[in-house]
Amino acid sequence: MIDKAAHVSGGQGSSVERRPSAKIVNSSENGVVRVSTMQRQMNKLDEDMKLMKDQLDAVMEERDRAFDELRDSKLVAHEAKMRLSKALSPRSPRSPRRGAEDKDAFSYGLDEELRIAKAAETRAMNLYAESKKRINKLEDEIERGKQSESKMFESIVSQTKQLEVTKMELEESKLEIAFLHEQLEMVRNSSPTKDYEHGDLDVGAFRSLRSELEQTKAILVRAQEGEKAALSKVSDLMDEIEMLKIELHAAVEAEEKSQKAMEHLALALKEVATETNLEKEKVSSTVMELEQAHEEAEKLRAMLKKNEEFYAKLLHEANQKYLMHQNTVERLRQEAEESILAWNGKEMGFVDVIKEGCEEREILQQEKARLYESLKAAENETRVAKDDNHKLRDILKQALHEVKMSTEAAAIAREENSELKDTLADKDEAIRFLIQENARLQINGAEDHEKTKELKRLRTSLAAFTESKFDREESGMDSEVDTSKFLSPDSVFEENCKEETGNEITDKLKEALKGSVYSSTPEPRSPKTRHFTWKNSFASTEETKANRATDFKNPDSNVEKHSPKTTALFQKFGDIMMKSLYKKEPTATYH
């Protein structure tokens, strides 16, 4: 009895569990199929909307093009009217030939404009026919889109109903599964007591119940997963439905706009047709006016031939008079050439006399300048000797104080040596410039050439002398400061000898520059007798500045025979030499 009851209960439980599992599987499969169909329909609707938008854009472009062509045709007609009014308006009297040519050109232009207007009219009519065809096609497509939209809406409604049905079935399956769980719990609780009491319970029935329980659990898990996926798909579908509604609203608005645009296009095409008829009437009137203009042109041509014959006679007479005038002009030209040749001969004689006077004046100016420079050199030498004596006395008095400040004096001397080297570089550049100027001015004579050679030789000797002097100053600075605190008479005598050699070189340079273009440079300053002497004589620099000003302002100088450009270059070179040779030294004296 117990075995039978167990078999019966096991059979009933299995049948109860199999029924909800089959329902769940069928409902999940139906939901997947519905979702796939809805997605296909959504894709079709998107494609249809894109096609409608493209077609609307094409129609709008064609409408704009038709408006542009209409505007162009209006402009052409207006220009034709203006030209016709200009041609028919009374003008200023002109030659008959010119009037005939203008009328011919005007008639040709009117013919071209008529041809262009006819072509524009045909294009406008073709566009009008094409736009009508397009409008009809778009209306048909809009109707088909409306039908497809209505079908889509009905399908969406039916699918929403089916989704509600699937939800109800899922709820029922959940209830059945809960009932089965309760029965399984009851069987589990009752089965051990019965086995313990009776001991002869069927093991096979228990195993079958356990296997069916596991199957129902797996089916339940799959049903829950399918339910979740269906719910997510349903939410996505609802969002897509909302988007479709928005796009449908936009499509309806675009359709209304396109209908309004088509109505405007139709009105514009009607206006074009009426204007073309008016233009045809105007063209016929212009053709009549053109025929009248042709008749007037024939009359003007006949008058033109008569005028040409008259003007040909006048031209022949004018040519004869021209030949007579030309003969008289040739005779007068020959007489003028003979008188010009005679005057040129006299003028050359006057020029030769003037050149001789100028040469004598230049020679006198050169001699005067040389005498003036020699006198200046003598005065400057005496002044330099006096300045040197005063400097030697100051040096002997300040020797003790300068020994104390020897370190600072050495640093300042090094800086001054670097500045002197810079001035030597400036001298070299100036001398290179003078070499180029001397090469260009070789036509001035052999004397200038020899002076430039002597200047080069003195430059090399002066550079060698200054470099040796700088080397001696740098090497002997520390030794002099450390070995002797006071100067002996022998060392003073040796330094005076060095100064005399330097003065001899500068005197040679001055003698070489005497009487040349470079004689405007001032007297050289007295060289330094000691490496650590910083006191400068202001009187010599002021006198040299005054002498340089008088030399540059002297109108009898040799610079007058050069061009203003060369004189300016030489003055610039003189300034550079002045700055390099007479550069100011620090005037502070150390006590």
What series of H and E elements makes up the topology?
Answer: HHHHHHHHH
Shape: flat
**Average pLDDT score:** 66
Show unreliable segments: 1-25, 90-96, 193-201, 477-502, 512-562, 584-591
Q: Treating each run of at least 4 consecutive H or I residues as one helix, how many helices?
A: 9
Determine Rg (CA atoms, Å): 62 Å
- Main sheet characteristics: none
Spatial gap, N to C terminus: 147 Å
Structural class: mainly alpha
Helix fraction, binned, reads over 70%
Coiled coil: 35-69, 121-190, 280-335, 361-444
Region (Disordered): 1-23, 82-104, 538-564
Keywords: Coiled coil
Protein name: WEB family protein
Label this structure with key terms.
mainly alpha; disordered N terminus; disordered C terminus
Describe, in plain words, how this protein is organized in 3D.
This protein has 2 domains: 2-310; 398-581, no CATH class. The chain is flat. With 591 residues, the protein is an all-alpha fold. The chain has helices at residues 2-88, 96-198, 203-397, 399-404, 406-440, 446-483, 489-513, 538-553, 564-581.
Q: How do the helices and strands line up, and which of them pair or pack?
A:
Elements: H1 2-88, H2 96-198, H3 203-397, H4 399-404, H5 406-440, H6 446-483, H7 489-513, H8 538-553, H9 564-581
Describe what is shown at a glance.
With 591 residues, the chain is an all-alpha fold. The chain has two domains: 2-310; 398-581, no CATH class.
